[in-house]
Write a structure and sequence with these properties.
Length: 284
């Protein structure tokens, strides 16, 4: 790799200065490196202007935390540029190296000593009165959650049109393998190898002792229907990777399926999935 773009989360202390430093380092190594000129805050201003990117770009270096990396992958959905994470946050489970260790990692990339980890993404649609109201994609998860401090929600879950269960719960998580170590894990769901291709469905605080996580193959369509007859009102919200969201009303239907796009994460550190899990989850 010789052509890089550096995107820094403007909200992270020291990220902008570190981005300039990294660009200077790459140029000294004979690479083409440019700093994404617009201020990027993944939770305020998400969209990356594709016309501001070099047509010959080979890799995007992302300075921030897991949230920044996830949002850049979503923004670059149609460009499919490989993305590399340099951690300016705390745990940084998805990030490859900490900011102080970037020279060795970049040298490996320049020498083509890396591999690309292909990650499943999922798409979601909100359907209201037969019309698609909203659609988006996620790398980690799509979450149906109760809105504010209102009472629990009641909803029906279907797979390929077949009823699975009716839930009284705070919500439900539909996670990818990459997202299995995020909210899904906190809610008691299973951890899945990140390069697998499947769905993990985990209820959030279900009001029953029988509700458990379920793992499905990747060629299904998951649907959730907010119960229009429930006396509690069932006002709820659908989150995509904890960022973009849409408020739901009783009778809305959510359809979730495998996206045709994948996130491409560059890996330079020779650590297995279990190594990363042990170092960042158990020991970190």
């Amino acid at each position: 790799m010789k052509r890089f773009c550096v995107i820094a989360n403007a909200a992270k202390e020291g990220a902008s200065e570190k981005a300039v430093e990294i660009c200077s380092y790459l140029k000294k190594k004979g690479c083409c490196a440019f700093l994404y000129t617009e201020e990027y805050d993944p939770y305020e201003k998400r969209r990356i202007s594709e016309n501001k990117l070099d047509p010959g770009l080979e890799c995007i270096l992302v300075l921030g935390g897991d949230g920044t990396l996830i949002q850049v992958c979503r923004d670059m959905l149609h460009c499919q540029h490989p993305v590399y994470g340099i951690n300016m946050g705390t745990v940084g489970y998805l990030m490859e190296v900490d900011a102080g260790n970037y020279p060795t990692a970049l040298d490996r990339m320049i020498a083509d000593q890396f591999h690309i980890s292909q990650r499943m993404m999922i798409a979601g649609e909100v359907i209201r009165k037969g019309e698609v109201l909203y659609r988006d994609v996620a790398l980690n998860d799509i979450v149906l959650d109760r809105l504010g401090s209102r009472s629990i929600i009641r909803f029906n879950l279907y797979v390929n049109g077949e009823p699975v269960n009716r839930y009284h719960a705070d919500g439900i998580i539909v996670a990818t393998p990459t997202g299995s170590t995020a909210y899904n894990m906190s809610a008691g769901g299973p951890i899945v190898s990140p390069e697998a291709s499947l769905f993990v469905v985990t209820p959030i605080c279900p009001h029953t002792i029988s509700a458990r996580s379920v793992v499905f193959q990747d060629d299904i369509v998951i649907e959730m229907e907010v119960d229009a007859t429930y006396r509690g009102g069932c006002y709820s919200v659908l989150h995509f990777d904890g960022g973009s969201h849409v408020e739901l009303i009783p009778g809305d239907r959510v359809r979730i399926f495998k996206s045709q796009h994948k996130a491409q994460l560059v890996r330079t550190v020779k650590e297995s999935f279990l190594d990363v899990l042990r170092h960042k989850m158990y020991e970190g």
